[in-house]
Amino acid sequence: MLRHLIDTAVRGGLPPVAVRLQSSKTPGQGDGNKLSHPVKLANNADIPIVDYNDPDYLPLPEYPKKSNEPLDIKKQRLLYQSRKRGMLENDLLLSTFAAKYLKDLSKELTEQYDSLINGVTNDWDIYYWATNVKPTPPEHDNEIMRMLKEHVLNAGRESRIRQPNLN
């Protein structure tokens, strides 16, 4: 049944880049392989792997702006989001940055910081921009990014091997 489904997918529907069938048997050993296309056989399981071409355009979700959010609540949210990035490098950089600067930021700078860490970007992009590995795009080349880059330089040689304590 599974082989029939794979064969049907190959003949019609979506054109795969490659179709492989992992199996411990080799072709012609009576394994019932009735596929009309060549397969690579390896490993110990009958697990089909179908690779399809990616579409040219993948829509990226927009982060919903919270226009009526009070400034103190926004800063609390940003403090949390600065600490929980999903990669240790940004957890350390952004949590120490937020602990040092967030409480004193103006509304405009807080909005810039919110756009930076919650915009349609990859965390690695933020890391590379902050460490000057990649050029910062114009939409994020602002006062907050300059402050973050200065923070990353760590002129005071502060220890940043763990996130700061919450007060």
Secondary structure elements and pairings:
Layout: H1 2-11, E1 16-22, E2 47-52, H2 71-83, H3 88-101, H4 107-118, H5 123-130, H6 143-153
Antiparallel strand pairs: 1-2
Helix pairs in contact: 2-3, 2-4
Keywords:
41% helix; SDH; two-stranded antiparallel ribbon; chaperone; 167 residues; SDHAF2; SDH_sf
Summarize the structure.
By secondary structure, this protein is mostly helical.
Level of helix content? 40-55%
Which architecture of the domain at 71-153 does the CATH hierarchy give at level 2?
Orthogonal Bundle
Beta-strand segment tally: 2
Strand content: 5-15%
Supply the helix-strand structural class: mainly alpha
CATH superfamily of the domain at 71-153: Flavinator of succinate dehydrogenase
- Our Rg estimate from Cα atoms comes to 25 Å
The CATH first-level class of the domain at 71-153 comes to Mainly Alpha
In the CATH hierarchy, the third-tier topology of the domain at 71-153 is known as DNA polymerase, domain 1
Gap between N and C termini: 60 Å
Order of helices and strands: HEEHHHHH
Number of helices: 6
Written description of the protein model:
It is built from six helices and two strands, in the order αββααααα. It is mostly helical and 167 residues long. Helix 2 (71-83) packs antiparallel against helix 3. The chain has a domain at 71-153: Flavinator of succinate dehydrogenase (DNA polymerase, domain 1). The protein has a two-stranded antiparallel sheet. One of its GO terms (cellular component) is mitochondrial matrix. It comes from Glossina palpalis gambiensis. Interacts with the flavoprotein subunit within the SDH catalytic dimer. Keywords: Chaperone, Mitochondrion.
